[in-house]
Amino acid sequence: MRKVRFRDPAGSVRVGEWADGAVEFGGQRFDLADVSLLPPTDPSKIVCIGLNYANHAAETDSDVPERPLLFLKTPNTLAGHGDTVTLPESRERIDFEGELGVVIGEQCRNVAEDDAEEVIAGYTCVNDLSNRDDQRVEQNWVRGKSFDNSAPVGPVLATPEHLPDGASIETRQNGEVRQSSSIDDLIFEIPELIAEITELMTLEAGDVIATGTPEGVGPISGGDEVEVEVEGVGTLRNDYVAGEFTGDGTHDFVPNQ
């Protein structure tokens, strides 16, 4: 099953099933044009993994880590499939980072690697947007990683049977492939990530683990469209506009020309 959270024409939030370009719920079928898709989960936190592909470590001139590198994105970072995301004003470089997201199905702590599959509700696509201006000069990456809408997630939560072994992951910018890899290239695999995280941190139902990005990350400009596709899961698409500060406490949002 591929589950979808959406707001129906009456404004109610529902959880339905993705069905060939439509959403089914309660015996009704809704065209995508008639509903608003929401992030497929409502996490208390997004736990992200840094440098989990050797080729991405190489492109950043970083050493391959000896253990998973963890950082957090907060709930304000969420955006859904099809949302138009406004890039922060006065920042020179915001990068896309396409990733596989693991959605947790139950509250859990101290999960052994052999038991990790039992706590997985399913998988989704994540774009871990990164504000490089601030990330380069701060240690905790709050400005760099947790600015508003910096974690587009979706379009669906695909239950585990949909994710094939060695699933491919691809990021496209304005139709051109920028990242192309496979989850076989993960340095730390999903069971190890869950065990490492839950050794010290309780994960809640709905939390997301963003498993890391392959090589090919690059900057986004206003007017761009970025798609993240994970084989068996689906394609997350978002448009981006540049935020222009007016100086009076308001913002005009206009695409770069």
UniProtKB/TrEMBL annotation:
Pfam family, one: FAA_hydrolase
InterPro entries per UniProt: Fumarylacetoacetase-like_C (IPR011234), Fumarylacetoacetase_C_sf (IPR036663)
Domain Fumarylacetoacetase-like C-terminal as annotated: residue spans: 45-239
Keywords carried by this UniProt record: Hydrolase, Metal-binding, Plasmid
Protein name, per record: Fumarylacetoacetate hydrolase family protein
Gene Ontology molecular functions: acetylpyruvate hydrolase activity; isomerase activity; metal ion binding
Transmembrane segments: none
GO biological process: carboxylic acid metabolic process
